[in-house]
Design a protein that fits this description.
alpha+beta; five-stranded mixed beta barrel; 18 helices; 22 strands; about 25% strand
Length: about 600
């Protein structure tokens, strides 16, 4: 028999009854029932109940041992009686009568419990992640992550893609976040950068004559933590294709993501239809966000005309003074009570720092449908009813309003839309709703510097004939600000999974695109000369996308925080509490790298 195990702790069934077997694992739980000692032994594969009788020479030793100690037990498999069968366990029809015991490792008092999985502080969980990872729910999520990555990889290969690896030590990236820098010992005063994404390399792979590339790529960005963004590092399904249009990219990646989500959705629904395609301007107008959660059926509408010249002077005055002012309506089906409307108004003031959130709600009085609330009183019954008709509302419904220049209020209006949908129970549960956000503006107006600048991705191709683009003038702000780019995002349930683009593969067009944004040719050559030079030797039209693996797993695991699907995550301050990183370097290391540390001054007072 093997020194440690003949079977795993999740393997024994009735077919093994009568056999002598050996198991190794962690003591998950102990129970003393009428002299019998029951021990649940756990390993990666499952759990088996082991039994010792008081006369066993190992009874006292095992009784004294702490949970999470690692032991090897040998004994006979016996069938449980009908009344003691545990239907919740795959091994629940049998138990192991222990005849021999070896202690592999005795556990000290635990920093946090494994059995029962109570809530515990993040600091303790991350400092002792090796114990935290033993908890069943987290353990299963990490296994799920591996299975999802395996599925992504398999589907990409089946789709004709080939996996290639790109460098980890590289040059600074155009992605826009802060780099992690690595000092060079051989080249004093110079630094590598960890890749924020393999963006330039995957485009160079296309220039090199390869075609359908993918990689489960590690990416490194020195940015602050959020629930949906891990500090320091993350993984993405990086892909790029040659000789493709935007439609080709959509057709390649949709089946991969839809297939993975269907495979791991459980009882949740993944609609069979193609992902919705929503232009950026439409997304901002209807949902107040470029990552809309389509499980919420509420769509905002422009209702400016109903307030222009009305008795509601707050909105009417704004409209009169500024032609850019709009009023957006946020319908609230079933929200037609003063209590709900006042609650939303308080939320806007207290949580959002807004002066308030105007509303109308509709009720029936003496058989007559009427609008109620200060706005209805000020604009009168005719305008109030016109609003109701436009929005398709009825008795018992309400509507909220936001006004101003859209760029100033649209994000707040989007959050209000989400809150209304949540509070009124309008969200569709147990479904994954995907969409593409398309037609991003190529440029936007930088009010601070009074100039045109890139709005999203500077390396994407504009949606215009290339010869016509080259003829545009830098001062033709109206035309430039009206240009759309071949850029696209995938959003699922309000979570942005990825950004992508059809790339700008022509040096003349790229230099012109940067020139319109105020960057001279010498700046572009210095920053991106490697890629530009490659394009000068023949570059195919190409495009790609990079869905975030961590976010995919987070959604499929039904979690709200990436730390719950990453094996060894950093904390909110990007610290590894378990390995005590970052940590000071030794003086000899600094000397080898020709570095010295200059710490910031301590705060005064």
């Amino acid at each position: 028999m093997h020194a440690y195990r003949s079977h795993t702790c999740g393997q024994l069934r009735k077919s093994e009854v009568g056999q002598s077997v050996r198991l190794s694992g962690w003591i998950h739980r102990k129970r003393d029932h009428g002299g019998l000692l029951f021990v649940d032994l756990r390993d990666h594969y499952g759990l088996t109940q082991c039994v010792l009788e008081p006369e066993s020479p190992h009874f006292e030793k095992l009784e004294r041992m702490r949970v999470e100690s690692v032991v090897t037990v040998t004994g006979k498999v016996v069938a449980r009686s009908d009344e003691t069968v545990n239907a919740n366990l795959p091994t629940g029809e049998v138990e192991l009568r222990v005849e021999d015991l070896s202690v592999q490792s005795a556990a000290e008092e635990l920093p946090l419990p494994v059995f029962g999985e109570p809530e515990w502080s993040e600091e303790v969980r991350l400092k002792h992640r090796y114990v935290d990872l033993r908890r069943e729910s987290l353990h299963q999520r990490i296994v799920l992550r591996s299975q999802i990555i395996d599925s992504l990889r398999r589907r990409m290969v089946e789709g004709g893609f080939t996996e290639y690896q790109t460098p980890i030590l590289t040059a600074t990236s155009p992605e826009g976040a802060r780099d992690f820098l690595v000092p060079s010992r051989l080249h004093p005063g110079k630094f590598y950068a960890l890749p924020q994404a393999p963006q330039q390399f995957k485009q160079l792979i296309m220039v090199s004559g390869f075609d359908r590339y993918f990689q489960i790529a590690p990416c490194f960005r020195d940015e602050d933590a959020r629930a949906d963004r891990a500090p320091g590092e993350f993984y993405q399904l990086d892909m790029e294709m040659s000789f493709v249009t935007q439609e080709d990219v959509f057709q390649a990646i949709e089946p991969v993501l839809a297939g993975v989500f269907k495979e791991f959705a459980g009882d949740r629904v993944v609609p069979d239809q193609a992902f919705a395609r929503i232009p950026y301007a439409e997304a901002m107008a209807k949902y107040g966000s470029d990552k809309p959660d389509l499980r919420n059926p509420i769509e905002m509408e422009a209702v400016t005309e109903h307030f222009a010249g009305s008795g509601f002077k707050v909105f009417a005055g704004m409209i009169e003074k500024n032609p850019k002012v709009e009023v957006r309506a946020i319908p609230a089906p079933t929200g037609g009570s003063r209590a709900f409307c006042d609650g939303m108004n308080k939320w806007a003031q207290k949580d959002e720092g807004q002066p308030g959130l105007g509303y109308i709600f509709w009720r029936e009085t003496d058989g007559v449908l009427e609008g109620a609330g200060p706005i209805a009183k000020n604009i009168g019954p005719e305008r109030t009813d016109a609003l109701r008709v436009q929005l398709g509302l009825k008795t018992g419904d309400a509507c909220f309003f936001a006004a101003g220049e859209p760029k100033d209020f649209v994000a707040f209006a989007g959050r209000a839309r989400d809150r209304v949908g949540r509070e009124l129970g309008l969200f569709e549960d147990n479904v994954f709703k995907f969409c593409w956000i398309i037609d991003f503006p190529m440029y936007e107006w930088d009010e601070d510097n009074k100039k045109v600048d890139f709005s999203h991705n500077p390396f994407s191709m504009p949606q215009i004939d290339m010869d016509d683009f080259l003829k545009l003038e830098k001062d033709d702000h109206e035309t430039l600000l009206g240009l759309k780019a071949w850029q696209y995002d995938i959003v699922c349930n309000g979570v942005e999974l990825s950004s992508g683009a059809i790339r700008n593969h022509r040096p003349d067009v790229m230099l012109k695109a940067f020139e319109f944004a105020g960057y001279g040719a010498e700046v572009v050559e210095e920053a991106f000369g490697g890629m530009l030079n490659a394009f000068r030797y023949g570059a195919p039209p190409h495009g790609g996308i990079a869905p975030g693996v961590d976010r995919i797993v987070m959604l499929l695991a039904d979690q709200d925080n990436l730390r719950e699907v990453v094996m060894f995550p950093k904390d909110q301050q990007a610290r590894d509490l378990m390995m005590n990183a970052p940590a000071p370097a030794e003086m000899r290391q600094l000397r080898e790298l020709h570095l010295r540390t200059v710490l910031p001054d301590a705060p005064k007072g």
